[in-house]
Design a protein that fits this description.
Blueprint: H1 3-8, H2 12-16, H3 27-54, H4 61-85, H5 87-95, H6 101-117, H7 122-128, H8 133-137, H9 142-164, H10 171-189, H11 201-232, H12 248-284, H13 286-289, H14 300-317, H15 326-339, H16 345-365, H17 373-392, H18 402-419, H19 424-438, H20 443-452, H21 460-479, H22 486-501, H23 507-538
Helix pairs in contact: 3-19, 4-9, 4-12, 4-19, 5-6, 5-12, 5-20, 6-12, 6-19, 7-12, 9-10, 9-23, 10-11, 10-23, 11-21, 11-22, 12-19, 12-21, 14-16, 14-18, 15-16, 15-17, 16-17, 17-18, 21-22
Length: about 550
């Protein structure tokens, strides 16, 4: 029997329980939407102007135009992410009649906004570590812009393609695929004999495991939670199709779970755009954004002390290798990072030299915040090279004593504190883009999650179980700095509750969702690779 026939065969009472998804917003809501949109763009422009003026780096008109285009693409990705992914969060409250559709999407948008604002930034920089190191160090070059444009536009294209078919798809999965496509193409385009970094496969596998594990967690834990609820909360109303007025306490539970998923989604997914925006800003205005200018002068003694300790650890593992100049050290470490061949005495000697160079620079200027414009790019690149090398040393087979490992971990943290920061205006701009995106184009995905996954109407307990598991999983992933898919977790969670409840699954929809998940990585890689090749040739 076809899915259409299954839908037609459903009881009339169920059809009557469907929410009205086509109610038009009042003109005042449209006005508020446009006000927020204009305010977000204006605040971003103000933030860029004040940041660049404060460091004496006013931007040329051409640089401003390039920056504007890049930021619009990055914020466009977050906007599409909003209506594509967050529709999953509101489907349960809409189909259980806990909130009217328009109220639900506005509510979700607000908590997506708040989730972005309080996010830590850990996920943002976890995604960036997947990018080729040579493109990160030269993000202001033509190849750097080609990378940013290619991976963002590829992610937007695939997201819109799956959205147009009403298929819940992961923006995180899509972005990771785009990054991998750019990395592989960057490696293919490198001149013969030149060491060029491609994909950090170890980091890619770590992120990939989180993305692949999340739907399994969503399905299994949501099913188990529903069965547990049936055992300990024997309230028949919870396990029946929504009919008539929803009891206030059930509505409260479902609104709370929707709020949790929306907040968690903002905190996790919003960071991906923030990380890429920071790369764009570093490329266009390095003096303002390459180093963390908010670090106080009082942090300098501790930074110099941990750098000195790290230098001695590096020197102890250099095993008599010749000392190298800072300039030679940069090239040696850069090549070692590209080839992942780090566990060598000469690399440790180079790290000792580079660490000494960084410490001397910070001491001479007084603090990281006082590094002058002419020295900013080199300082940032030196700090990034050292931090990335320390991150990869264990994977390269370096054997470190526990005390030495702890010193290098603290040193890496200090280096990252000096280069990893996100201005308030970036957070606000991304929050507005994600929040407003939540309120546009949500119907397609909502209908799929609410009607087309199971053969029966979603019950109160099913909606609450799926969203509780989704919120908990996403918040846990954010704590560990791992990007996960809200879409994967929530839609598989709904499927898990349908299976546990004996409601049956619509195989056609499940097949399409799984197919989209399987194809997302290779499709995004292919689109991003082709775009990178094209942009690399013309920029």
């Amino acid at each position: 029997m076809s899915d259409l026939a299954l839908n037609d065969a459903r009881p009339a009472a169920q059809a009557a329980a469907k929410p009205d998804l086509h109610k038009k917003p009042h003109v005042s809501m449209v006005a508020v939407f446009l006000l927020f949109l204009v305010s977000g763009i204006g605040y971003a422009a103000y933030g860029i102007f004040t940041d660049t003026q404060s460091v004496g780096e006013p931007l040329a008109i051409s640089a401003l135009l390039l920056l504007g285009v890049a930021l619009m693409i990055a914020l466009g990705f977050e906007f599409v992410n909003g209506f594509h992914d967050t529709a999953n969060a509101v489907a349960t409250v809409i189909y259980t009649h806990s909130l009217p559709p328009l109220t639900a999407v506005i509510w979700s948008g607000v908590f997506n906004f708040l989730g972005v604002l309080v996010s830590t930034g850990a996920v943002a920089y976890s995604v960036i570590t997947l990018l080729p190191v040579d493109l990160i160090l030269q993000v202001g070059s033509a190849a750097g812009y080609a990378m940013i444009f290619a991976l963002l536009i590829a992610a937007i294209i695939w997201n819109l393609a799956t959205w147009s078919m009403g298929i819940p798809n992961s923006s995180s999965h899509c972005l990771i695929g785009s990054i991998m496509g750019v990395g592989l193409t960057n490696e293919l385009l490198a001149p013969a004999g030149q060491a060029t970094s491609g994909v950090d496969w170890t980091q890619a596998m770590s992120v990939g495991k989180a993305l692949l594990f999340s739907p399994v967690v969503g399905f299994a834990l949501s099913a188990l939670l529903l069965l547990l609820l049936k055992a300990v909360v024997p309230v028949p109303k919870l396990y029946q199709e929504p009919k008539g007025k929803t009891p206030w306490w059930i509505r409260g539970i479902l609104i709370l779970t929707c709020t949790g998923v929306s907040f968690a989604h903002g905190g996790n997914d919003g960071q991906k755009g923030m990380g890429l925006i920071m790369l764009i800003l570093i490329g266009v205005a390095p003096t303002a954004y390459a180093l963390n200018r908010t670090m106080p002068d009082s942090s300098t003694p501790a930074f110099v002390d941990i750098t000195s300790k790290a230098k001695w650890v590096f020197a102890a593992h250099a095993q008599g290798a010749q000392q190298v100049s800072p300039n030679d050290a940069r090239g040696l470490i850069g090549t070692a990072l590209k080839t992942r061949n780090l566990n060598r005495p000469d690399v440790f000697a180079a790290l000792a030299s580079l660490s000494d160079e960084v410490a001397n620079g910070v001491k001479s200027y007084g603090s990281i915040s006082r590094v002058p414009a002419a020295a900013t790019a080199n300082m940032r690149n030196d700090m990034y090279l050292a931090a990335d090398a320390i991150r990869l040393l264990p994977e390269a087979g370096a054997k470190l004593e526990p005390g030495d490992a702890a010193i290098l971990k603290n040193y890496r943290t200090s280096l990252e504190d000096g280069t990893r920061f996100i201005p308030t205006w970036v957070k606000v701009s991304v929050a507005i883009a994600l929040g407003l995106g939540t309120m546009v184009g949500w119907r397609r995905i909502v209908v799929t999650v609410g009607e087309r996954i199971g053969k029966q109407h979603l019950t109160y307990a099913q909606g609450a179980s799926a969203e509780l598991v989704a919120a908990g999983t996403i918040l846990g992933a954010e704590f560990y700095g791992m990007p996960v898919s809200t879409t994967h977790i929530l839609s598989s969670g709904v499927a898990g509750t349908m299976a546990a409840n004996g409601s049956g699954l619509q195989t056609g929809t499940i097949r399409n969702i799984v197919l989209a998940w399987v194809l997302t990585l290779p499709a995004a890689m292919l689109i991003a690779g082709l775009l990178y090749m094209m942009f690399h040739a013309v920029i």
